[in-house]
Amino acid sequence: MLPLTAREVYQQLRDAALEVRLLKRLDEQSEPGQVQVEIEGWRLTLDFDGNHLRHCQRCQSPDGREGEFDSWQRYGTDPVSLLSTWELAQIERLLTELKTAV
């Protein structure tokens, strides 16, 4: 099974920013500075310091494929770095709203 590419994960984040797909925060425990979210079956662990989204630590697609920060960095990119400034701001806004709603 092929690993997820940064572009595949970026597309999920982009769709969430455009509010085409629903971004939900998961109640699962994660490391400090990380938040776990789901975008219609895609499970992402994001490095989020409460204000700024830094990168996507890992992702699992509905079909079971996975991708991780270390493998994406080998190719010089991360799904978060592919977001436009506006898309990044939208995701950060959604994450902040979800954080206060929990």
TrEMBL record:
This is DUF7693 domain-containing protein. It holds the Pfam family DUF7693. Residues 4-96 form the DUF7693 domain. It comes from the Bacteria.
